[in-house]
Amino acid sequence: MEYNYEKLLDRAWNSIPEKLRSMSRFEIPTANTFLEGNQTIIRNFNEIADILNRDSKHILTYLSKELAAPATFDGNRVIIQRVLRDAMINKRIEDYAKEYVLCHECKRPDTKITELSGEKIIRCTACGGWWPMKKIK
Ligand SMILES: [Zn+2]
Question: Would you state the pLDDT for residue 36?
Fold first, then answer.
């Protein structure tokens, strides 16, 4: 009996539920920015928050602290009171994703914030792993 490996792979791939397939393609979003005077504007902040599936206020608070600059919402955009390179912002978004979104055990993004004995934790719905949600200092 001959096997067509392409077809076998297709079949294996197609038997994975849609949700899992989309997770395996997860990519940490990057900022689309431009400078305006001494400010850096992130054009696609809402999109970043949607992909990370976290509260945009929480993400902004984190970025503001990490980038040591005040940041405010302006519609879909975010204005940071500092001149920043994309790489600096993207590094912080990546750090955020690693701390608050991607499972610390299986690395999948299918996690949610919940509570355990009154403490906020992040739980992975894929592997069941969880870790305490770090407070933004
Ligand atoms: Zn996990």
Answer: 96
**32 CA → ligand 1 middle, Å:** 29
Ligand 1 center–CA 117 separation, angstroms: 21
Which domains can be identified in the chain, with CATH numbers? 5-104 (3.30.30.170)
pLDDT at 13: 65
Residue 26 banded pLDDT, cuts 50, 70, 90: confident
What distance in angstroms lies between residue 115's CA and the mean position of ligand 1's atoms?
Answer: 17
SS (H, E, C) 31-81: CCEEEECCEEEECCHHHHHHHHCCCHHHHHHHHHHHCCCCEEEECCEEEEC
